[in-house]
Design brief:
This protein is mainly alpha-helical. It has helices spanning 8-20, 24-37, 42-54, 58-71, 76-88, 92-105, 110-120, 132-142, 155-172. The protein has a domain at 3-124: Serine Threonine Protein Phosphatase 5, Tetratricopeptide repeat, CATH 1.25.40.10. Helix 6 (92-105) runs antiparallel to helix 7.
Length: 194
């Protein structure tokens, strides 16, 4: 039986199998063919985009994820994957928007939290955003610690600084469970801990 007559789910399973076997060029050809045969199936575009990511085709992957989202606006994984593509294209504001949309749709999506925190560790968003991570990030940046580079920082000073950071986190990120917290960030003060 030719692939054209298989049910869509079987075709998708075959496509995923090609991807998992790292037969990326073959998977890419199959994904393109499936997208043409079934232009209204969002999962096909999402997988097509993932294959393009694996091949480093960031522009094409962003196009695929955008098509998946157009077909299914609440497609959490496609929003997150679009964020990955945009992030790698250097479109950080748009990537943040994609990650926060994924989190809006699925607040406990740990991978999206990690992706958002990773960007926030080196980039300050310019566009307003009500995501708790972004609000906490902006507030953390306002915590000042005046110190003299000629005087050693005391343990009490460090504890106080971390307490202030923790207070911001606890006040702004309720019910948020993550595997990691990034306190030392490239856009904060240097504590001279050498």
């Amino acid at each position: 039986m030719s692939n054209q007559h298989l049910p869509v789910q079987e075709k998708v399973n075959k496509l995923v199998s090609l991807y998992e076997k790292n037969l990326l060029q073959e998977a890419l050809i199959e994904a393109k063919s499936l997208a043409n045969q079934h232009p209204n199936v969002p999962v096909i575009y999402n997988i097509y985009g993932v294959i393009n990511i694996a091949l480093g085709n960031w522009n094409q992957s962003a196009i695929c994820f955008s098509k998946a989202i157009k077909l299914k606006t609440d497609y959490v994984e496609a929003h997150h994957n679009l964020g990955i593509a945009l992030d790698n294209l250097g479109q950080l504001e748009e990537a943040i928007q994609s990650y926060t949309k994924a989190l809006e749709l699925k607040p406990d999506f740990a991978t999206a939290h990690e992706s958002l925190i990773r960007i926030l560790s080196f980039y300050n968003p310019k566009k307003p955003n009500l995501n708790p991570c972004i609000i906490a990030n902006k507030l953390l940046q306002t915590i000042n610690y005046n110190y003299d580079t000629n005087i050693q920082i005391s343990d009490e000073d460090v504890v106080t600084f971390f307490q202030r950071c923790n207070n911001v986190i606890f006040e702004n990120i309720n019910n948020l469970n993550m595997n990691e917290t990034e306190i030392f960030r490239s856009n904060t003060i240097d504590l001279k801990c050498d």
